[in-house]
Every structure is written in structure tokens, then in C-alpha cells.
Amino acid sequence: MEIIEGAGVWTPLAAGAANDWVEHLRVPDLSVGTYCIPAGGRDDQSPHTEDEIYVVTAGRAKIVTLDGAAEVGPGSVIFVPAGEEHRFDEVTEDLALLVVFGPAYGSRAPLATGK
User: Fold this and answer.
1) How many CA atoms lie within 13 A of 60 on its CB side?
2) Where do the Cupin type-2 domain residues begin and end (predicted)?
3) Quick one: CA dihedral 18, 22, 26, 30, positive or negative?
4) Measuring CA to CA, which residue among 68, 105, 109, 104 is closest to residue 86?
5) N or C: which end of the chain has fewer CB within 10 A?
6) Strand, helix or coil at 91?
């Protein structure tokens, strides 16, 4: 067992940073981290090669995919399959996300699109 301190907690960003990703745990089959985007910030992530789950722990935004968009806030749980384009938009309150990747983030070969 391991208690993961600070996972999903909003952390002020370093000066000049657009957003922040911190990995808290990594084992071969999954990784857990926190992704923070400040209010008014821009999410410029590319599709990932792993499935992921986001749990919104603080803030409000809209998640946008090619299939549509949805408002999210504290308690929202979002599943994004590997390879699906997605981003958080219209971040109206500092957004903190607990992120779980399966398998561990970056452990699969790059997508055919090069992203």
C-alpha cells in the first residue's frame, strides 16, 4: 500500500508556465498524476497513447473532443480512450485534475500520427 500525498491538489504554477503536470506514482500498468490549468489558461495537450481517467478535484472548465463538449467541475469523472483528441477549454476557475493512465503514461509506442 502507498498513500499518494498531494495527488489532485491545485498547485500554483511556476512563473511563465501555461499548465503543470506532476507524476506522483508510476508502475508498469498505470501512473497517477496531477494536471493543473489556471483560470483562463490554455490546454495544448496532444492525444495520449494510453487510456486515461480524469477526476476533477477543483475548478470548472469544458472538456472538448471531436464528438462534442461537456461542462465539468469538482467530482466529474472523465474517461478518454487512447488516441482520442481532447482538451480542456473555457477554464473559468483554477482547474486541478487527478489523472490515471493505463498503462503508465508514455509507456506505449507513439501513435501513427506522430503525436
Assistant:
1) 3
2) 35-101
3) negative
4) 68
5) N
6) strand
User: How far is 91 from 61, CA to CA, in rounded Å?
Assistant: 4
Amino acid at 6: G
- What pairing do the DSSP bridges indicate for beta strands 51-65 and 86-102? antiparallel
What pLDDT sits at residue 18? 74
Q: Does domain 20-102 have CATH number 2.60.120.10?
A: yes
Distances (CA, A) of 45 to 22, 42, 72, 83: 14, 9, 18, 12
Burial 85-111 (b: 16+ CB within 10 A, else e): ebbbeebeebbbbbbbbebbbeeeeee
Q: pLDDT digits over 48-106, tens only?
A: 999 999 999 999 999 999 999 999 999 999 999 999 999 999 999 999 999 999 999 98
Entry pTM? 0.89
Query: Containing H/E element for 95?
Result: strand 86-102
